[in-house]
Queue: 2 jobs
Job 1
Amino acid sequence: MSDSVTTTFSDLNAGKSKLINPTLVLNCGSSSIKYALISEDESTRITGLAENLGLDTARIKHTTLNGEKLEITIPGGRHELALQKILALLEQYDFIAVGHRGVHGGREYSEAVRVDEHVLSEVKRLKVLAPLHNPANALGIEAVQAIYPEIPQVVVFDTAFHQTMPAVAYRYPLPKSLYEEHKIRRYGFHGTSHAYVSERASEITSAKGSHGWLTAHLGNGCSATAVYDGESLDTSMGLTPLEGLMMGTRCGDIDPSLHIHLKRQLGMSLEEIDKMLNSESGLLGISGLSNDLRTIEQAANEGHKDAQLAIEMFCYRVGKYLASLSCALPEFTGIVFTGGIGENSATTRASILTVMRHFGIQFDEDKNASLVGGAEGSLHTEDSSIELWVIPTDEECQIAKETRQTLGLD
Ligand code: AMP
């Protein structure tokens, strides 16, 4: 492990010639920072990840243009230091813009926005709705401002894509004042991913006219969205990313009276309940093993009953949700699977489609099995009622694209 920021001669040369007018994409989370430097034509990129932030084990894993791997320690694990080191690593490539993944843009932002003082203060203010993510986003913006005050920055909010949802989908059946005075409504998340894969599906399908997709982003976090003609009409996540599908450690939909029940019966505090629902539930809670589907699939194959139930519940809940979201679409062109699970687990895709057995969906088992490890393609047969696609998501590319568009660079 090295503490120094070194660049090889070949990397420098390769970088200068291939990375034309690159955009830096920063995805600052509570304990990690993902970054990508993407060339204007989107064909070349440098990527990296700062992980374990907040801990002494914090480090940056950086992949150069040549595919060479570097590891850089971050003594003390502070976000600010990690960002400084990332910027130092990329300094030589003369990036022309920075695009941030913003998690919560509230009602304010229905599209990507150029950062100014007002935008930065809104990102900070909206931490009430995303306490883990928005403060980290603000740190990322400020770190760039401190070192490169002249480089334009853009925030692409996870919530922005879903601002096209109609009131019938975004309102909760709660007293009106909660919405009007306190902005309590459904916002939706994973917007850049749903936008990217639905746009890509519309590019590669041969279906004519307007397209209605159900996009299933199944990773550690999971959400599904109904996208018609490029617009989100409904989605599974809500005020926070806890609503909707069962996830790695998040419960998804549960009875809202659970909080009061647990408080009364078990004396749990609201903080304890919140932690349990966000960090100890989902695949982890049911399997009792892990939030990682690979571990659970292996245990299930070896006969572990709780692992088998975790997978069955996961697939049942995704299928049930997709079936209900289909009601939002004027036309149902197809389903798009993405995210670590959606892109890699053929058995999970097959089980989800089997749950939706009344829809006339037909898929080719061999095609399904072949679509893993970053492959893009379809698995429906000719007589299927709808199309079925696996499209690897590329949130970094989408953020870079929206950043360039917002700044008029495209
Ligand atoms: P993401 O958050 O999109 O990185 O997705 C993480 C999830 O994808 C974890 O639950 C992983 O277990 C799952 N995953 C990644 N690769 C595979 C695979 N080959 N088979 C099954 N699940 C996978």
Job 2
Amino acid sequence: MAQIAEDRAFQEARLRAEELRSLINYHDYRYFVLDSPEISDAEYDELVRELRRIEGRYPQLITPDSPTQRVSGQPVEAFGIVEHRTPMLSLANAFSADDLRAWERRARNIVGDGRLSYVVEPKIDGLAVALVYEDGRLATGATRGDGIRGENITQNLRTIRSIPLTLQKKVPPRFEVRGEVYMTKSGFDRLNEERADRGEPLFANPRNAAAGSVRQLDPRITASRPLDVWLYQLGWVEGAPSPVNTHLEALDWMRGLGFRVNPHIERLKNLDAVIAHCESWERRREELDYDIDGMVVKIDSFALWQELGYVGREPRWAIAYKFPPTQGVTKLLKIGVNVGRTGSLNPYAVLEPVGIGGVTVKLATLHNEDDIRRKDIREGDWVIVQRAGEVIPQVVGPVASRRTGKERRWRMPKKCPSCGAPVAREEGEAMYYCPNTACPAQARRLLEHFVGRGGMDIEGIGERLAYTLYDSGLAKDPGDLYSLTKERLVALELRHPERLGGAIGDFLQ
Ligand code: IVH
């Protein structure tokens, strides 16, 4: 009797475990892919707890694709090798609209002048992965490696919650999807903050952080990192005819199965629209919470992929339109201090000039002394400099491996570099201040602010003229601007023609 009751309990547990798994998978999909949960976190946690209880009681019911295995995977001995069934290719690069046009011409030389449709997608700056599903379950996840053979990182990829472990719909017996694992910018900032607090080396950028996180031997470390994935390609399908004939159909099919497919993918009908779209994202790339280093342009039709084929490792049916880089490495020559209009002392880096994305960067901000100390940035260090859009360039952190031992740690000066007053810092505040309300640097900055966009936006007075007005004594504070006379201004220009270069003439117009 006891045996029968025990068997029945086991069968019930097995059915309930299956039910819980599919419920949890469904809610993972709602939460991580659709961003639209149907149940509260507490209800979700209760489902996971119940499943854990059952699996604790009947360990034989644990399946590798159980949601409980996402986080608690055991460290793998070392990564095994995965042979990719079809090579993971790379892309040729285009750096301009002309490069895109030349690419289209080469394709048209092969496929003729008929209509072409293009699919344009963000080029995610992460790490390429291939996911093989067998009978609807995630069987293998691998890195790109050299394109032919990659590393088996299935255990680690299982910890990424938006990667489905099982698919709920009918699918071909075996198929592969490819995509990019990445780290969000906000997640990266948080991770680096924590690392700085613990005195650990910083990651240079989200891509390095993602690559480092995915190639961990202990999946628990991967699980603790803010990773996510965008799937952008159907690799191959086996055991059933391909469910799709075009790339866009493939993406829609994948989306329908619960894969996370980027919402900013668009099909465009001609190359001018493609170029406009690429250029528009080049300006808007900062809007996304993940790094993109360009746009990928693909011809939509699979039949044309066949016709176009490859040159070496690069398909003729796709190309990467690359954006200018946003990071560079250079030497930090010296740390200077700027006095703000409220007296805040702002450290900045004087850099050996470095070209980043077509702009020469010589100065970068360093936030505050605590940040410099936490990131262990020293004068003489090689540093990573980040330049994003209009934002002032920043020093991300040192390249500690390039140290020679001659680098110098930095401290905030004890005295204001402008007026010499002893500097002060409020309890719990990150910034140091010059407490002297008569500090000339503060007054100059105040005048500059007053005439500028953030203040009265006085047409014709820029930073240069504001400084000269201050230095010459004509305007020591904003009130003085209202008693300026034409004669005095003209006399000023005559005294400083090299400094003003016609600025006053322009202003008086
Ligand atoms: S398609 C043959 N689409 O870029 C086509 N790649 O430079 C293979 N990447 O190794 C790739 N976003 O890691 C494609 N939307 C996207 C992509 C993308 C990022 C990466 C991928 C690839 C590299 C090629």
